Amino acid sequence: MANILVYALHYDGAINKNSLGAVSEGAKLAAELGGEAHAILLGENVSQDLAASLGNYGAKKVLVAEGPEGLAQPLVDAMAKAITDGGYSYALFGGGLLGFEIGAGLAARLGAGVAMEITAVRAEGGELIAERPILGDSAISEIKYRSDVGIIIGRLNAFEIKQSGGGDAPVEQLSFELSAHASQATMLTRGEQRGADVDIEGANILIAGGRGLGKAEGFELAEDLAKAFGGNSAVAATRAVVDAGWYPYAAQIGQTGKTVAPKLYLAAGISGAIQHKVGMQASENIVAINKDANAPIFEFSDLGIVGDLNKILPKLTEAVKAKKGS
Amino acid sequence: MKICVLVKEVPDAAVEKRIDPSTGRMDRSGEKNLNPYDTHAIEAAMQIKEGGAVPVEEIVAVTMGPESAVRALHKAVSLGADRSVHLSDAVVAGSDVAATGYALAKTLQRESPDLVLLGQQSDDGECYTIGAVVAEHLGMPSLTQVIKMDVESDALRCERQAEYGYDTVQIKLPAVISVGDAINEPRYPSLKAIMGAKKKPLDSITAADAEIDASKVGGENSAAQWVAAKAPPAKAAGEIIEDEDTGETVEKIIAWLDERKLI
Would an 8 Å CB–CB cutoff place B256 in contact with chain A? Predict the structure, then answer.
């Protein structure tokens, strides 16, 4: 029997989508191993109903720990306690920044093996084998664990959300001690939204801009093109330019931003780092404009244009307008 | 304050990367360079030193890797580090993330830093988890993807983007901080600094020097084991246009979009 402990990130009364995917995946894998998947939530006064609702995704039990939210190290303490007491064979995380931090810290604490950016997991001979794409997704490596506990950190959106019809799960309180170093970090403000509130998730056509736009004003080129397409089109951005303050956080695609799948995704000046790719690879048609012919984005775009976007975008905008007018 | 910056040599982006089929590990031969993300960590250390909010006695660049990793240390020193430490030992070769973090933590313990800085991820293995592993072994608080960092006597006020927006977190020193690339624009080293880099002290140490338990490191002792590598499902390569005549390029794009009824 091998039980799996799944981390469930929650905020503002809702469970994160990637965590729901991880709980679903954990339940499936645990069944194949002849064990159970349990979930763990940590926070201040976590709602019992919210915790119990993970039973609908296949969790047979949910542990709730009281502690500071939004930081990784308190979860390392809580999960290490749960694993030591409960004899879990695997810890599973959906894609996301906190999952990476917690999983890595837990590996160090428990002397456990850790694999990250995992896109698929399978049970074989009573153990789990994790698949990780490497080298810009040009190869997939398979990883298994020599340690008593294996830690699996998923890639964003890798695990499908599946309702199991299981109904509410029993909830248990987990008491644990906060380690000395975990108490050295204090969340001052969490979840601050920076920039205008824009909606990109419903758009059919997204014009996405990256560092290649050169400066905040460069986004005007992307906005002009989106306007020329008209209708249900919008402008999106990469983390790098949002962090730099060029564009609003609400328009960000990727690892800590939104996941989109529009009919057309036109990437201007975006290199195509994996953290971006995971948020937009399901788009129906991907067009990329980049001056660097070696940019990874050309490896997963349907149409790639190697050239200067400052020359191409204005002319493309005019041509789209002309076409629309005809 | 003493700041240690973890740096790493990675294959140059221009060199094609490959997996060694006999070991399942990344072939790390070929042209090497300092991980571009690490230059932001060195710059962050320099800005704390030059900012004057706290006196910085020393900035030490630390790396683990083969002989050639010395070049990454030279680059780090040319960007402002005062000296460097190189953990070089056959027993650590092939270590996974957890074992690498352990070995680096043991190396850092010799230095007793007040602050450990590193880049958000390395360019080759994309492991932005190493900071959390190092912090756990050192018993220090940690935070990754930090894009703003202010020193307040015995603590740092850090900002970073997480799942639900921007978080501001106060971290007491000593601490391990991974910086995001938006934190600063790294400076270019001066010619004088490049020439002088090789003269700065470089301490080359073995695993035994760092009191590393050899049974916890190296490919054979790593808990995460690569068992196989395979090709991903084949995906038809996209069409590529080299823009020579922009008018013509735009016509082709419009035709492509039109064919797919996207206009």
Answer: yes
The topology under which CATH files domain A4-184 is Rossmann fold (3.40.50)
Report the DSSP pairing between strands B115-119 and B2-6.
Answer: parallel
Give B-chain residues touching A146 at CB under 8 angstroms. 222-225
Residue A134 pLDDT: 85
The stretch A148-168 carries a mean pLDDT of 94
pTM of this structure: 0.92
Per-residue pLDDT tens digits of chain B, which is 263 residues long: 999 999 998 776 545 556 666 666 666 555 677 888 899 999 999 999 999 999 999 999 999 999 999 999 999 999 999 999 999 999 999 999 999 999 999 999 999 999 999 998 765 455 568 999 999 999 999 999 999 999 998 999 999 999 999 999 999 999 999 999 889 999 999 999 999 999 999 999 999 999 999 999 999 999 998 888 888 887 777 999 999 999 999 999 999 999 999 99
B255 touches chain A (CB under 8 A): no
Q: Is residue B221 part of a domain?
A: no
C-alpha torsion sign, points B49, B52, B53, B56 = positive
The answer to whether B250 faces chain A, any CB pair under 8 Å, is yes
Q: What type of residue sits at position B142? A: S
ipTM entry: 0.92
Q: Are B167 and A191 in contact (CB < 8 Å)?
A: yes
Task: Work out how many domains chain B is built from and give that number.
Answer: 1
Residue B12 lies in a domain: yes
Decide yes or no: CATH 3.40.50.1220 for domain A205-325: yes
Q: SS3 sequence, chain A?
A: CCCEEEECCEECCEECHHHHHHHHHHHHHHHHHCCCEEEEEEECCCCHHHHHHHHHHCCCEEEEEECCCCCHHHHHHHHHHHHHHHCCCEEEECCCHHHHHHHHHHHHHHCCEEEEEECEEEEECCEEEEEEEECCCCEEEEEEECCCCEEEEECCCCCCCCCCCCCCCCEEEECCCCCCCHHHEEEEEEEECCCCCCCCCCCCEEEEECHHHCCHHHHHHHHHHHHHHCCCEEEEECHHHHHCCCCCHHHEECCCCECCCCCEEEEECCCCCHHHHHHHCCCCEEEEEECCCCCHHHHCCCEEEECCHHHHHHHHHHHHHHHHHC
